[in-house]
Specification:
17 helices, alpha+beta, 511 residues, 18 strands
Length: 511
């Protein structure tokens, strides 16, 4: 019995072409027999479920009460056990965290000569359907004794060998389908992501939030400071923008009387690509009437903690070999307090001197916009000196109004808004605030953003007249937040690169 390069060096291009030719020849024979790619096999069991239910049974118990199994899976291993028997390992999609693999055992007397001959011709990667009964081998491994065997799908391309797998990281991203077949770790990552997303939805619905859908094509890009993707609608003959955030549409719904809304949405920003940035990404945004940013911070903390527990099993995580504890109350501090803690040495006088901060920022290679005020300069200095050091969950609060065009101004401190950003492991995870519901104030903020754009800030916002019109009908006081799902998934799954938690990340074209 042959197994293609199962224990050998990686398959070369020449080897792959030869193997594919052999597989195509086998497929041609199967086609002639009229049995290629059947669609009438219905599996009734999953490998992980069988393992969970029967792995603890003894051989005698399984013999006394035979368990009939009907299962389908991809053949990942096979080996001959003399001339009259063979073992193989099938892999299916079972289990939220478990690896869905189970061993099968075919014998000449039970499985039959025709099926045994067929099994010898099957290749790794083929999808098989089996019927049989469970038993345990001498090494106590749960196994299916095969009575019936069928080829469900013939794989034409050979899988990477089991030891080397997909060695190139970019190939893993580009050919995620192969990565998922070969890597239990990758499968666990995306099962954890799904578990976290389900957790978030349950948590929101439990707290009486209504899930909604808002447009992805916008006539005016808004809701965030970002550079949009631009497209053109032929029938309407108008320029449109891919959504950079759903915020302004969600708050229109609050105006309309939906007091609690949320959307798990895809956003698009035409900016850089890095280990933390992908041009297309997932956010969860929510808005709650009659709340403020203090309530939103508490709620955001609770959402994130529960998602970690449901996806990872605990809120006590490890990221890059270092502990990250989401079970404790998150820290809170202002921008200036963070600078003083993580970059000590600046005096209060210096941190309130715009000219000094501008000079200091030049040392970091940052040239502020001409329109930048003291608050914006302090934020820029925070980003250069303190942000990367915020390992434990920390809310940075009370952002300057000039960089917070949609946030409610503080009732006690001029120039400050009731806004926060949540940081973990030195990166932003969430952004939220008490919402600005004063139509005249919002109009003035938009005009300031237009001036900033004209001064060269490509990420400044546009003036949205319809949103102002909505506010003029009256929006109740509210709070809102956007949580970066992809970055949160990086932390929950201990993934160093955002591409590790995206099934199909954006890459340069193949050469």
């Amino acid at each position: 019995m042959t197994t293609e390069n199962q224990d050998q060096a990686p398959i070369t291009a020449a080897d792959e072409n030869k193997l594919m030719a052999e597989r195509r020849a086998k497929l041609a024979t199967i086609r002639q027999q009229g049995i290629a790619f059947p669609n009438d096999f219905r599996p009734q069991h999953k490998a992980a479920d069988l393992t969970a239910q029967y792995a603890g049974k003894t051989r005698e118990e399984l013999e006394a009460e035979p368990v009939h199994v009907v299962l389908a899976g991809r053949m990942m291993l096979k080996r001959e056990a003399g001339k009259k028997a063979a073992f193989a390992t099938l892999q299916d999609a079972s289990g939220p965290r478990a690896d869905g693999r189970i061993q099968i055992y075919a014998t000449l007397d039970v499985t039959g000569e025709a099926a045994m001959d067929a099994l010898r011709s099957y290749d790794l990667g083929d999808i098989l359907g089996v019927e049989g009964t469970l038993f345990k081998t001498k090494t106590d491994e749960l196994t299916i004794k095969v009575s019936k065997l069928r080829l469900i799908t013939k794989a034409i391309r050979p899988l990477p060998d089991k030891f080397h797998g997909l060695a190139d990281q970019e190939t893993k991203y580009r050919q995620r389908y192969v990565d998922l077949i070969m890597s239990e770790e990758t499968r666990r990552t995306f099962k954890a992501r799904t578990a976290a997303m389900s957790s978030i939805r349950r948590f929101m619905e439990k707290n009486e939030f209504m899930e909604v859908e808002t447009p992805m094509l916008h006539t005016i890009p808004g809701g965030a400071a970002a550079k949009p993707f631009i497209t053109h609608h032929n029938a309407l003959d108008m320029e449109m923008y891919l959504r950079i955030a759903p915020e302004l549409y969600l708050k229109r719904l609050v105006v309309g009387g939906f007091d609690r809304v949320f959307e798990i949405n895809r956003n698009f920003r035409n900016e850089g690509v890095s280990v933390r940035h992908n041009p297309e990404f997932t956010m969860m945004e929510f808005y709650a009437a009659y709340t403020d940013y203090q309530w939103i911070m508490n709620f955001t903390e609770a959402v994130i903690r529960q998602a970690a527990v449901d996806a990872h099993g605990t809120a006590e995580l490890t990221y890059g070999g270092r502990a990250l504890d989401l079970s404790k109350p998150f820290h809170r501090m202002t921008i200036v307090e963070a600078i003083n803690k993580y970059a000590p040495g600046y005096s209060a006088e210096q941190l309130n001197d715009a000219d000094f901060i501008k000079t200091e920022l030049l040392k970091f290679g940052v040239k502020p916009f001409a329109t930048a005020g003291l608050g914006g300069l302090q934020l820029a200095l925070f980003e250069e000196t303190a942000e990367a050091q915020l390992w434990e969950p920390t809310f940075i609060i009370d952002y300057p109004a000039e960089v917070s065009p949609l946030a409610r101004a503080s009732d006690t401190t001029p120039g400050i808004t009731e806004r926060f950003e949540l940081f973990m492991v030195g990166r932003e995870i969430a952004n939220g605030f008490s919402e600005l519901n004063d139509a005249e104030d919002q109009s003035a903020r938009f005009l300031a953003q237009v001036a900033a754009k004209e001064a060269g800030d490509e990420e400044a916002m546009y003036y949205d007249a319809d949103y102002i019109r909505a506010l003029e009908y009256g929006m109740p006081p509210a709070g809102g937040c956007g949580i970066g799902i992809d970055r949160l998934m990086m932390l929950i799954t201990d993934s160093p690169n955002i591409r590790d938690v995206l099934l199909f990340p954006h890459l340069r074209k193949e050469e």
